């Protein structure tokens, strides 16, 4: 006697809840993943020009990463040296006694610039469909849940505000520490 449900029936549209379009997408994704596995694991069918192209892409990506990391270190060290010169107490240093005020002004200017950019370029504003539509393209249909604001005042003051305050204090107290510690210790 045969079982009532065969293995083929489990892939049926009614059983999985997939439409024909979803089923084709799933099949296409499986095919692409199989091709990706072949590219990653390697196969004997790759030509030398294919390997050369892949090597060039890896080298290009590596060089871009190296340049970005080196730039980050350069700017980080530069701003640390500048802050030490500004807040240090030795004769050849500026000896500015208000590091928290400087940090507060820095954060206020950052806020104003970010607000201006978001006002002038509305496509940079976060949207409620940012998770489901990461390309930030307008959705085909809007429902009521997407018309709600992305961040309520409660969300802003309980999640975003404390992170901003902690970041500002971290930078401000770090700048204040330049008065007493050497740059190498920082």
Protein architecture, described:
This protein is mainly α and 186 residues long. Helix content is 63%, strand content 0%. It contains six helices and no strands. It has helices at residues 7-10, 13-16, 20-41, 48-87, 99-120, 153-177. The longest helix is centred in the middle third of the chain and has 40 residues, at 48-87. It is flat, with a radius of gyration of 28 Å. The protein starts with 6 loop residues before the first helix and ends in a 9-residue tail after the last helix. 4% of the residues are buried. Residues 5-10 have low confidence and may be disordered.
pLDDT below 50 for ≥5 consecutive residues: which ranges?
5-10
Helix and strand run? HHHHHH
Number of helices: 6
Helix content: 55-70%
Question: What's the multimeric state?
Answer: single chain
- Compute the CA-based radius of gyration: 28 Å
Describe this protein with a few key phrases:
186 residues
In short:
By secondary structure, the chain is an all-alpha fold. It contains six helices and no strands. The protein is flat and about 70 Å long.
SSE topology sketch:
Elements: H1 7-10, H2 13-16, H3 20-41, H4 48-87, H5 99-120, H6 153-177
Helix pairs in contact: 5-6
